[in-house]
């Protein structure tokens, strides 16, 4: 995966039992982690060294169970592949709101674990001007 023009390793973990998907990109000071909580329709995002954690709404869905053979097949097909990301001029961007979430009781334990003690900010979609 390319982050800021630099090729970074990434991984994805699916926890179908808890309806979660975790993406890890980069490493060390350049690591970013995103947890997709499909049960509650929330994505949590944390950047290494950051002073804030972010959440955004997403579609509620159910992750299908993936068998061991399918997991191995998907893994080997994606190993070493570069997946280009294209930026379109009028594409949607996500901007943090000014104030952190006051009541985080609606967040799953996995998103709360991701954010730790950091303040949590909603991301809202917008188009560049």
UniProtKB/TrEMBL annotation:
Keyword Transmembrane helix recorded: yes
InterPro entries: BRICHOS_dom (IPR007084), Chondromodulin/Tenomodulin (IPR043405)
Keyword Ribosomal protein set for record: no
Coiled-coil region(s): none
Membrane topology label: Single-pass membrane protein
Protein localization: Endomembrane system; Secreted, Extracellular space, Extracellular matrix
Keywords: Chondrogenesis, Cleavage on pair of basic residues, Developmental protein, Differentiation, Disulfide bond, Extracellular matrix, Glycoprotein, Membrane, Secreted, Transmembrane, Transmembrane helix
Domain (BRICHOS) ranges: 26-123
One GO CC term on file: endomembrane system
Any one biological process term the GO annotation gives: cell differentiation
Function per UniProt: Bifunctional growth regulator that stimulates the growth of cultured chondrocytes in the presence of basic fibroblast growth factor (FGF) but inhibits the growth of cultured vascular endothelial cells. May contribute to the rapid growth of cartilage and vascular invasion prior to the replacement of cartilage by bone during endochondral bone development. Inhibits in vitro tube formation and mobilization of endothelial cells. Plays a role as antiangiogenic factor in cardiac valves to suppress neovascularization.
PANTHER family from the UniProt entry: CHONDROMODULIN-RELATED, LEUKOCYTE CELL-DERIVED CHEMOTAXIN 1
Family affiliation: Belongs to the chondromodulin-1 family.
Name recorded for this polypeptide: Leukocyte cell-derived chemotaxin 1
């Amino acid at each position: 995966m390319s982050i800021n023009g630099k090729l970074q390793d990434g991984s994805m973990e699916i926890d179908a039992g808890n309806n979660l998907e975790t993406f890890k990109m980069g490493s060390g000071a350049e690591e970013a982690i995103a947890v997709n909580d499909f049960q509650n329709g929330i994505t949590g995002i944390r950047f290494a060294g950051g002073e804030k954690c972010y959440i955004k709404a997403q579609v509620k869905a159910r992750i299908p169970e993936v068998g061991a053979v399918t997991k191995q097949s998907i893994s080997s097909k994606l190993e070493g592949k570069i997946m280009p990301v294209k930026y379109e001029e009028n594409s949607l961007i996500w901007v943090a709101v000014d104030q952190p979430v006051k009541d985080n009781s609606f967040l799953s334990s996995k998103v709360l674990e991701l954010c730790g003690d950091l303040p949590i900010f909603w991301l809202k979609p917008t188009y560049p001007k």
